[in-house]
Amino acid sequence: MKRWIGAASLALMAFAVSPAQAADKVVLMLNWYVYGEHAPFYYGKAKGIYAAEGIDLEIQEGRGSAATTQAVAAKTADFGYVDVPTMMRAAIKGAPVVATGVLLQTSPMSAMGFVDKNIKKPEDIKGKTVAITPADSMTQIWPLFLKKTGLKESDFQTVAGDGQTKLNAVINGQADLLLGYVMDQSMKIKDATGKDVYPIKFADYGINMVSSGIIANADYVKANADLVRRFMSATTKAVEAAEKEPKAAAQAILDANPKGGKIDTLTQGFELTIPLYRTAETKAKRPFQVTDQNMTETVNLLVEYGGLDAKAKDNPKAFYTNDYLPKSGS
Questions:
Q1: Of 17, 94, 250, 258, which has the most beta carbons under 10 Å away?
Q2: Signal peptide position in this chain (predicted)?
């Protein structure tokens, strides 16, 4: 009897100390240095949403969507959060990448200037100076904005420089506006000056394009279908949770990266991001559920104005899949 109890006790002890099944290590590389748009990933990690799906998430800052896309193509990052049109340009040239979820389904592109300059509509841009970064995604779509709004290049002056030069031009008064994302450059300007800016949004003038989303290596997706589903499930839940608690989500960025910004502008930047998650067609759907129409319109615009190879129009569905997203209510 004693021997039986001893054996049972040993078995129970062995069971108690045996480690739980190890979580899958996953690296998510962002499109850029951290800013408010990234809050859901940090919030999802902090709240244990990824852990609940058996995922040990590492979030890495990026150095541009093109560089992150290259890292995912080379499998040095498992997933990337990037500008989807940038990914399309790489994919059409042979990079083995695909979007497994498109989060920003309305474009954040805008022309923005200080509120006190009272530049609130395209007509107000006439006679002003606009700062741009040559060859970036916004500059490529800028001619379409001009066409949609009846503006001509001769209606305003242009100054060019890299991302920081562009910001400095507006901050220092050398330019009246810059081309930027409503939740990114606007917050950088506010951090630097304490002053609000007003964005003239491209999307308000008939430019229907997707923006940021999750991408993965196509071979990685095929080989790790269950993990991809769990990652997209966790990320969907993280976005939904962050939407309900914007300030707490922004605080999660600072908890992980104390030099990641200021709580007020991180929160405001994230709050400006939330309306971009859905279109009129997807307003009742969970995050990432992009429509075929939205993606097709994006491809068509990029072919006409954004330098995307015309063969992309043959099969827009080659660039994305909704197959790994959680169903409604799951």
A1: 250
A2: 1-22
